[in-house]
Amino acid sequence: MKIAFIGLGNMGGPMALNLHTAGHDVGAFDLSKPACDKLAADGVRIATDAASCVVGAEVVISMLPASQHVEALYLGNDKQPGLVPQLAEGALVIDCSTIAAATSRKVAEAAKARGLAFIDAPVSGGTGGAIAGTLTFMVGGDTAALERARPILEKMGANIFHAGDVGAGQTAKICNNMLLGILMAGTSEAIALGVANGLDPKVLSEIMRRSSGGNWALEKYNPMPGVMETAPASKGYAGGFGTDLMLKDLGLAQENAAAVKASTPLGGLARSLYAAHSLAGHGALDFSSIIKLVQKR
Ligand code: NAD
Fold first, then answer.
1. Which residue is closest in CA terms to ligand 1's atom 20?
2. Ligand 1 neighbours (beta carbon < 6 A)
3. How far apart, in whole angstroms, are the C-alpha atoms of residue 114 and residue 132?
4. Which CATH code is given to the segment(s) 2-165?
5. How distant, in Å, are the alpha carbons of 25, 75, 205, 243, 291 from that of 297?
């Protein structure tokens, strides 16, 4: 399968590599040269720009930071033409970025007007899941498009859920990430409280992991440095899932809650906490660094 992969960051890089390793003919592009160089070193073909990347591609996958990047890539803006008119006849577009459901629907409409299939397929599972090929995909779109995408998604993930029509994958994703943001802030608070009382964070984390406070942060992504060797916390909060990306997702959840008049008080508080953390200069650090807000210095 000839696949164009655009956006080779913390998530897109390993996802594109898994498709290449599975034997697909992957052409890739990112605006960042270091991101391209990393994949080129693994033998992935790098295109000079997005437009040349998609030439002849049967499937186009994007993994970009936010709505504005996805909209500009496919629909264009005053600086660049969009890709939609340039995609090959019959191409399938899979956008894996976490963005506003309304943007997914807008891009899907433009694709449909050209007779092209589109699904939103945001992911969960972190960079560890992207590397291991065990991501969870939350798909929005029609069944026929999902079934075309399935063999490709299976090379990058272990769970594929059909959430509903275009945009539904994004809605599921922001519900999940609102919960994750709250859980990470709460887990940080609990560990900091224990440590302030002289408890060993490793012992406390294990107690809570096996007790009723157990959650994904304690299982796979402990926010306290030194507790989990593989977690971003033990690597200076480098890589992983950026605080500013979590802030974006919590903002999307609040915008959505306002639109449907939902009450999301903890989600709102979590957004404010991550915003304060970002303003303190930690926007580029992994989101588990939120523990710095409540840790004794
Ligand atoms: P990242 O910042 O590491 O990577 C994004 C990449 O997109 C960068 O390399 C950037 O140069 C590139 N880019 C931006 N605009 C571009 C354009 N027009 N053309 C080509 N490349 C462009 O971000 P990430 O952590 O890989 O996250 C990507 C998406 O996945 C985000 O929407 C994020 O919310 C979501 N996500 C991230 C995680 C995680 O753990 N990091 C988990 C689930 C979902």
1. 30
2. 6-12, 29-32, 35, 50, 63-65, 69, 73, 97-98, 123-124, 126-127, 240-241, 245, 249
3. 35
4. 3.40.50.720
5. 50, 47, 20, 20, 11
Nearest alpha carbon, ligand 1 atom 37: 241
Q: What's the pTM?
A: 0.95
Residue where the block lists tokens 């710095």:
292
| Cα–ligand 1 centroid distance for 96 (angstroms) | 9
d(CA 236, CA 285) in angstroms, rounded, equals: 8
What parts of the chain have a pLDDT lower than 50? Answer: none
Residues 291, 293: Cα–Cα separation, whole Å: 5
Q: Would you list the domain boundaries of the chain?
A: 2-165, 171-294
* CATH number belonging to domain 171-294: 1.10.1040.10
Closest C-alpha among 125, 137, 57 to residue 95: 137
Q: Is 48 exposed, middle or buried (0-12, 13-18, 19+ CB in 10 A)?
A: exposed
Distance 100 CA to ligand 1 centre (A): 15
Asked if residues 13 and 5 have their Cβ atoms less than 8 Å apart, the reply is no
Task: Kindly list the catalytic residues.
Answer: 173
> Looking at this protein, which amino acid is placed at residue 56?
G
Q: How far is the CA of 62 from the centre of ligand 1 (A)?
A: 9
Torsion of the alpha carbons at 88, 94, 99 and 105, rounded to the nearest 10 = 70
CA–CA gap between residue 213 and residue 267 (Å, rounded): 19
Instruction: Report the C-alpha gap between 23 and 8 in whole angstroms.
Output: 18
Secondary structure class of 65 (helix, strand, coil): coil
